[in-house]
Amino acid sequence: MDTIFLETIYKKFQCQETLMCVTEITSGHINDTYLIETGGSEKYILQRINDTVFKDVIALQENKIKITQIIKEYIHKNKLTYDTVSYVPTIDGEYYYKDLNSKYWNVMKYVKESITIDRATDDKQVYEAAKLFGHFSLATATIATTEINEILPDFHNMNLRYKQFEEAMLIATDDRKEQAAKWITSVKKKKEEMTQLTNMMSKKELPLRVTHNDTKLSNILFNEQGKGKCVIDLDTIMPGIIHFDFGDAVRSICSTAVEDEEDVNKIRFNLKYYQSFCKGFASVLKTELTLLEKQTLILGVKTMLHIMGLRFLTDFLNNDNYYKIEYPIHNLVRAKNQFILLEDVEKNLLSIQEITQKAFEI
Ligand code: GN1
Ligand code: MG
Q1: Does the Cβ of 25 fall within 6 Å of ligand 1?
Q2: For the chain, how many helices (H) and strands (E)?
Q3: Is-contact 151 238, C-beta < 8 A?
Q4: Cβ atoms 143, 252 nearer than 8 A
Q5: Are 252 and 130 in contact, with CB atoms under 8 Å apart?
Q6: Does the structure show a pLDDT above 90 at 189?
Q7: Which of 24, 195, 213, 281 could tie 236 with a disulfide, CB 3.0–4.6 Å?
Q8: Which residue's CA is the nearest one to ligand 1's atom 8?
Q9: What pLDDT, on the 0 to 100 scale, is given for residue 1?
């Protein structure tokens, strides 16, 4: 996007420093994100919110402000060294700006001395990530789920995702269906097992919590010494079940490959990382989680791997109208990656059970 235009948007926010340089950050699949470097000591993140996905931006911003406030208080009260995202208001005092094309923008302060990681490279990072997501859950347990807007209703509801898959099958080209044939057959077979958590949630068998719903590794900021610093990307915070956050984090953190690795031989479930993740998560949440929650955590891992694969596959069948892609079969590669990782989880189920039971004292 044009720098002059981005500068005009930047100036609508209460940022004092002169804009010097704009760089696009391309890792997200949904919003358009830019790093703003300035003449002063602060840097900013300017983001155009995808309003096809996020239809109620005002409710979205309301959630983000509420959650950052709660996290700030939790960190202070518990004397933790973590940080939180901090949003910058516009000149008019709002936390979003609507441009002349009716597109919505928001600005965050860049968290100083922080780095992101796409693929875990040591146990310590994994343990740190787990603790941080654990604290996110404890911090947000201090407010009622009814205080949080349901930004994307049924986001992790498997019935909705199967419905969207079935609709995509009706309009998909023969060519795309042929390329994805193996995985189409496989998701059809797994429907019953993969819908179990959704059913338990509808029957209110699992406690509703405030969940982040996008707990991938790249949504954590680390400091340069590898210590977890801050949870970012607060877009999808909604009422949910702990499995969404545990499962989503494990699927991304315990993989030996990035989410769009094409070489299936490189995609494995790292048991050592899983052990570190469980240890870190349990160190914060062991007494908070119910027995049934703990007993079904592994189903959470399988479900989140499956739902991500299913959503990528559906988008491929829909001619890629949801996620940003960099090449024609990108979504199919992503889907296959998640399904292969799920197969490896299934192969290692006994060890995974043992690790989980030990860490959570089930
Ligand atoms: C999307 O935009 P990004 O990368 O934060 C998606 C998540 C998926 C993720 C997969 C609103 O998140 O659900 O887990 O891609 N967010 C939305 O990497 O659909
Ligand atoms: Mg996200």
Answers
A1: no
A2: 14, 10
A3: yes
A4: no
A5: no
A6: yes
A7: 213
A8: 214
A9: 81
**How many CB atoms are located within 10 Å of the residue 204 CB?**
8
pLDDT at 33: 98
Residue 226, token pair as written in the block: 């590898």
Cα R_g (the chain), whole angstroms: 20
271 lines ligand 1 (CB under 6 A): no
Single-letter code of the amino acid located at 236: T
Q: Give the span between the Cα atoms of 100 and 127, in whole angstroms.
A: 45
Residue with tokens 């953190």: 253
Do residues 25 and 33 touch, judged by C-beta distance below 8 A?
A: yes
Backbone φ/ψ region at 109: left (φ over 0), alpha (ψ -120 to 50), beta: beta
Identify the three-state secondary structure at position 75.
helix
Pocket test for ligand 1, best of 60, 108, 154, 214 (most atoms within 8 A of CB): 214
The confidence band for 324, taking pLDDT boundaries of 50, 70 and 90, is very high
Looking at the predicted structure, is the pLDDT value of residue 241 above 90?
Answer: yes
Q: Quickly tell me which residue has 């700030």 as its tokens.
A: 72
Helix runs in the chain, H state only: 3-10, 57-77, 123-140, 158-171, 174-179, 181-189, 191-194, 196-202, 242-253, 271-285, 291-295, 297-317, 330-347, 349-360
